[in-house]
Amino acid sequence: MALNKSMHPRNRYKDKPPDFAHLAAKYPDFQQHVHTSLTGRPVVNFKEPEAVRALTCTLLKEDFGLTIEIPLERLIPTVPLRLNYIHWVEDLIDGQKQPRRGIDIGTGASCIYPLLGATMNGWYFLATEVDDICFDYATKNVEQNNLSDLIKVVKVPQKTLLMDALKEETEIVYDFCMCNPPFFANQLEAKGVNSRNSRRPPPSSVNTGGVTEIMAEGGELEFVKRIIHDSLQLKKRLRWYSCMLGKKCSLTPLKEELRKQGVPKVTHTEFYQGRTMRWALAWSFYDDVIVPSPPNKKRKLEKTRKPLSFTLPQAGLKELQAKASAINGSARNPVDSVTVLVEKNLTDLRVLYKHVPCRKQQQSLFVTAVENTWIHGRQKRREHKRQLRELPRAPHCATISSQSTAATAVLATNPPSQNQLSPTQNTQDDGAQDKTAEESNGASSNEMSLEVMHNTIGEEKEEDVTGENMDMQSSTCTEDAASEPPSKRPLSPSAVEHFLFKCLLNVMLEESDVVVEMHWVEGQNKDLMNQLCTYLKNTLLKSVAKS
After folding, report:
1. What is the pLDDT of residues 192-244, one digit of tens each?
2. What angle do CA 116, 120, 125 make, to 5 degrees?
3. In contact, 261 and 299? CB cutoff 8 Å
4. Are β-strands 124-129 and 101-105 bridged in parallel, bridged antiparallel, or unpaired?
5. What pTM did the predictor assign?
6. Bind-site residues
7. All domains of the chain, ordered by start, with CATH?
8. Would you call 260 exposed, middle or buried from its count of C-beta atoms within 10 A (0-12, 13-18, 19+)?
9. Per-residue pLDDT tens over the stretch 437-463
10. Where does S-adenosyl-L-methionine bind (predicted)?
11. Which residues are annotated as a binding site for S-adenosyl-L-methionine?
């Protein structure tokens, strides 16, 4: 589960992510959904609805003592994200543990907000639901956790939000309302068509939920406007109105709508959970409420600076050190060994780098990528091998030697004819002609030998550019290539004017593992750095797996 440091400070999962191995050993129903990754760590496939449901039910049981049931065809909530919302509501109502009353609009089959609020804080909840299946499951989940005295689940007509739910309770003042509006306006949006930036990666988790849970006329924007319309009539029947948004673009028009309606107190926040991000909006008609401050720019800046990283576990470091020693015998420790292998991969990809000062037990490289050479690498290697099979040839240095010798032999046995000599040479005596022929023969032989060598070294340089035949070159040929003029040598990272991106790559030791981090500096597209990071990760982990 991808969590990060930007979660709510009181979220129990902020600094202590769920231990999948421990949970799998304790709960058999969850164990079947836990697999071992290439790094040897337990992972869960969040694209499988059964796995997401098993994790949610396991966390609620382990950390809150709650036993719930959720049908696969209805929305399956993630616990850490729902906790963020609960803690923010605590901030809105001053975080006091005294009995509070709240409304959950569209509680869903899990009834997760009322269950968490009642269990953690002793809050009273009115939970509304329009879907028959969700209503039945929510009622059952409340009853089997013995929380019927704190949570009342009510079935309301379609399109009802707050007004009809409060008709029978005219004297009660609620402290807050919560709501997860249906995010999408239609089926195309729900499938991600025209609703997602094309440059963003696809969602990392499966999208579950019934029609009423994920879709509404006009999407979440119109749905929340209906809540605003109800609040303008109810006003101080609730101290705080709130909702969670799935799209950042919905936040600004909703705040503008509240401003137009003259709502005096408005605030918002952001919820983080790995790659998942949500926005929450709250407003009040009370003058004495304390309004929490919105997220500041410093917090956003810290999020954008978060590096890409991957871990090489201790179990595979011995194999990597052995491979690194074969390349560079001076690599004495795991950090140096991983750095040597990273450098080799960067060299093969023609990615420029240079060492920069860093702290102890760490290696740092300033990386400059000039061209994208890490995409479709396997296809290129296969194509190159196919060409080598179809056009076999001798090693480069042997070719130079054999072709030069052959050229000399041909010229020695077939000297130039008289017709090939210049008019002045035809007028010379026999001795002069013999001497001239001998000189011409030697000169032609040298010229052909140089030409053959030039062509062969040219072919060698072309293969160097592909980065696929480094291991086929002899030491003599390598020395010839190394003697090329400075104008032909690769530029240093600082001398490159046009580039795809620049980043700082750190290799460091964390406990017994080695961690590789890539910090963005500048460039055209951060996705390119992500691709390179994935390439390096897969290459190093596959080396361990093959060993």
Report:
1. 544 445 455 555 554 554 444 444 566 788 889 999 999 999 999 999 999 99
2. 55
3. no
4. parallel
5. 0.57
6. 82, 106, 129, 180
7. 78-304 (3.40.50.150), 308-370+496-546 (3.30.310), 394-488 (no CATH)
8. exposed
9. 444 444 444 433 334 333 433 333 333
10. 82, 106, 129, 180
11. 82, 106, 129, 180
